[in-house]
Amino acid sequence: MSRKAYVNTTLVVALLLFASAFYYLPYYVTKPGMAKELEPIIEVSGGDRAEGSFMLTTVRMGRANIYSYLLAKWSDYQEIYPEASVRGEDETDEEYNVRQLHLMDTSKNHAIKVAYDHAGKEFSYQYLGVFVLDVHEDMPAAGILKAGDQIIQVDRLSFDSSQQFIDYIATKKAGDTVDIVYKREETEKQATITLQAFKDKPNQVGLGISLDDATRVITVPKVSIDSEQIGGPSAGLMFSLEIYNQLTKGDLTQGYQIAGTGTIDEEGKVGPIGGIQQKIVAADKSGADIFFAPNEEGNPHSNYQEALVAAKDINTKMKIVPVDHFTDALHYLKTLEDKK
């Protein structure tokens, strides 16, 4: 091959590689993220400090271009998911991000409730309004409301739950109007919306939104969680352990670096999450000594069993501990001896 032909071929290949970075495929790629210490982002007023640390674990996810897709095909602990399995039908990037951040907020509320309940501390709930998850394009709310808005009044009425809002709207018929007051970020806005029947449910009318409850847990002592832009519900268990450790005397960590994952509900039950093997890799790279994994009540295909496979594969010294409930993790930690 002549020098000129070689240079031209190299240039074409370089251009193709450059272009591949900007051509997105209908897939997402996930890979191991990080293990992040929780004490710097969770603060209980007057709380105790720990010698070791509790850590949440994350998975990095992004839209697949040609390069990242091919790389994931040949890489260990990178996974490829069809777009439809990640985002809802017609869900925009903004709506997806709002949904993930709302799941995180709900997870934090559950974690606070569980920790304060087990520590015997005071807490109560404050209802903030109807949380808008997404807006249907062909319905009246389109162009007025958007994902992340909080509806705080309808026809000068306030509600204690999204179900009360739904029940009120159900008393209306197509063509009726409602006056709403809603909050977008920190700004209150007003709008009048004409109700419309749903195409697939002609006997049911609405604004055309998917919704949930927006609540805040009020506590004594005060607790704050600065989760920044981390989304999803998978840090619930680790949040609850960090909060409980600051609330109570002594140090549950006993000097160990303790990572883990799992959703948590209001009763303290731990649920499974995605990307457990990638989180094992992330925790091991961060030097974790212990990793809590959802046991799913002994399911042979549980997160815990998947974690064991990954732990063996990467030859980690990290101890993998199965948990079904907040109290399982608590009991395990109370048996630990000080790290030498």
Describe it.
It comes from Peribacillus asahii. The chain has nine helices and 17 strands. The longest helix has 27 residues, at 93-119. It has helices at residues 3-20, 66-73, 83-86, 93-119, 162-169, 236-247, 276-285, 303-313, 326-334, and strands spanning 24-37, 42-44, 53-65, 79-82, 122-135, 150-154, 177-184, 187-194, 196-198, 201-206, 209-220, 223-225, 257-260, 263-264, 270-271, 290-294, 319-323. 37% of the residues are buried. It folds into two domains: 30-87 and 100-121 and 221-334, Ribosomal Protein S5, domain 2, CATH 3.30.230.10; 124-216, Roll (Pdz3 Domain), CATH 2.30.42. The chain starts with a helix and ends in a 6-residue tail after the last helix. It is of the alpha+beta class and 340 residues long. The strands form five sheets. A six-stranded mixed sheet has the order 4-1-3-13-16-17, sandwiched between helices. The protein has a five-stranded antiparallel sheet with strand order 8-7-6-5-11.
In short:
Residues 226-336 form the Lon proteolytic domain. One of its GO terms (molecular function) is serine-type endopeptidase activity. By secondary structure, the protein is an alpha+beta fold.
Distance between the ends? 64 Å
Question: Largest sheet, if any?
Answer: 6 strands, mixed
**DSSP, total strands:** 17
Question: Which spans of ≥5 residues are poorly predicted at pLDDT below 50?
Answer: none
Please tell me the overall pLDDT: 91
* CATH fold annotation of the largest domain: Ribosomal Protein S5, domain 2
Structural classification: alpha+beta
Name the beta content range.
Answer: 25-35%
Strand order of the largest sheet: 4-1-3-13-16-17
The dominant shape is globular
Alpha plus pi helix count: 9
Family: Belongs to the peptidase S16 family.
Catalytic activity: Hydrolysis of proteins in presence of ATP
InterPro entries: Lon_proteolytic, Lon_Prtase, PDZ, PDZ_sf, Ribosomal_Su5_D2-typ_SF, Ribsml_uS5_D2-typ_fold_subgr
EC number: 3.4.21.53
